[in-house]
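Quick one, tokens below:
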């Protein structure tokens, strides 16, 4: 149990081709499960509890071992979305924003996994995997059940993203962290901070708008079917 909870950093675990293929398969399985069982109360509640326990365990480790603010704040994009999916009321604009962020962010994180530098198995790697799969399911379930096109305009999605990322740039400067991958950004780690900020914000905004368009079309079909029934 001690190696599982150690704070002695080594290197991020290597991912074999087989392990990566399994991770992608579980992404597809998670999406299938969310689409098929989004209206099953037991399924919905189970994944919210999985997310809650995962966050509780991770932050108990952070607090118990007094990990530095550079990596223990709940300010990663997906981490923020995890808390939002559990604790925010369903009809809030910001929850719908974080559901879009959680669905797209979980797919990106599991498709391009960046583990903490600890030997596997470790609480951070388990939290990364369990947390992102649960986030993917919870975000999709929310969007399937509660998406409302009148809540968020595209300009709000873009504005929220740029404001959030600007805030994270400031946090990174103070703590030395890499929240939002805005300090050490994949593929452009040595670029000036303003280029990282713009590129991450533009790519993330475009992804969220795309997801919003997809769910807006589903929402419009759902409303049209309900009108036909009446």
């Amino acid at each position: 149990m001690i190696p599982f909870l150690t704070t002695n950093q080594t290197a991020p675990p290597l991912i074999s081709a087989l392990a990566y293929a399994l991770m992608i398969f579980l992404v597809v399985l998670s999406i299938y499960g969310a689409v098929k069982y989004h209206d099953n109360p037991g399924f919905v509640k189970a994944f919210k509890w999985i997310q809650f326990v995962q966050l509780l365990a991770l932050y108990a480790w952070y607090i118990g071992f007094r990990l530095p603010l550079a990596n223990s704040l709940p300010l990663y994009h997906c981490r923020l979305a995890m808390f939002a999916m559990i604790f925010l009321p369903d009809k809030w604009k910001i929850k719908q924003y974080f559901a879009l962020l959680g669905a797209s962010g979980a797919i990106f994180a599991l498709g391009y996994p960046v583990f903490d530098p600890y030997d596997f198995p470790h609480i951070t790697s388990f939290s990364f995997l369990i947390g992102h799969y649960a986030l993917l399911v919870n975000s999709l379930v929310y969007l399937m059940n509660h998406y409302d096109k009148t809540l968020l305009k595209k300009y709000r999605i873009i504005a929220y993203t740029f404001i959030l990322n600007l805030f994270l740039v400031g946090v990174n400067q103070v703590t030395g962290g890499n929240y939002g991958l805005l300090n050490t950004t994949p593929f452009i780690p040595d670029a000036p901070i303003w280029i990282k900020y713009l590129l991450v914000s533009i790519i993330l905004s475009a992804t969220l708008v795309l997801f919003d368009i997809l769910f807006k079309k589903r929402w419009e079909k759902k409303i049209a079917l309900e009108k036909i029934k009446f």
